Amino acid sequence: MIRIIKDPNADSRTVNGKVAINKLELATANHIEHVQEGLGYLADLLKKAGKEHDHTKSENMEQFHEALQSGMIKKSKWYKQHITEERHHLISKVPDDVTLIDVVEHLVDCVMAGSARTGEIFDIELPDEVLQKAHKNTVELLKKQIKVREVK
Question: Domains of the chain: which residue ranges?
Fold first, then answer.
């Protein structure tokens, strides 16, 4: 949970008249801390995504191997599981609750895979609707982590 201290004193949109410099300093310091906590929360989600990345490959290596050997990987049972359980395959299947974490994992996956496998990075494009949905869902994800406390 990210605890936010409600304070309108460090924002030109909400400051009510003149503000003392000590209150401005406190409000600014609190805001910076809040942003750091929010970014830390998102960084933790990125680290978690990295730890879980392609778990359907490592947990089901024999099925993954069989799918590759078949020459029809995209028709395999394993592949259907892979794109359903893994959130980062945004060209094949976009989760309803897609977030910017999924988008970043997708981008990193494409760059790393291209670099390691062929030495080429293919154009990485996502539809605007996916990016807008990921943006909206990430805002909602962050909002759910916030508990606002009134200034005394």
Answer: 2-53+88-150
> pLDDT per residue over 96-126, tens digit each?
999 999 999 999 999 999 999 999 998 899 9
pLDDT category at 151 given cuts 50, 70, 90 is low
| Residue type for position 89 | H
Q: CA-to-CA distance for 34 and 16, rounded, in angstroms?
A: 21
Cβ–Cβ < 8 Å for 92, 76: no
Q: At what angle do helices 128-144 and 100-117 cross, to 10 degrees?
A: 130
- Neighbouring CB atoms inside 10 A of 128's CB total 8
Return phi, psi of residue 52, to 5°: -95, -5
Tell how many helices (H) and how many strands (E) occur in the chain. Answer: 6, 2
Q: How far apart are CA 150 and CA 31, in angstroms?
A: 14
Amino acid at 51: K
Residue whose structure tokens are 């606002």: 148
**Residue in 144, 121, 150, 130 with CA at minimum distance from that of residue 42:** 144
Residues forming a β-bridge with 3: 147
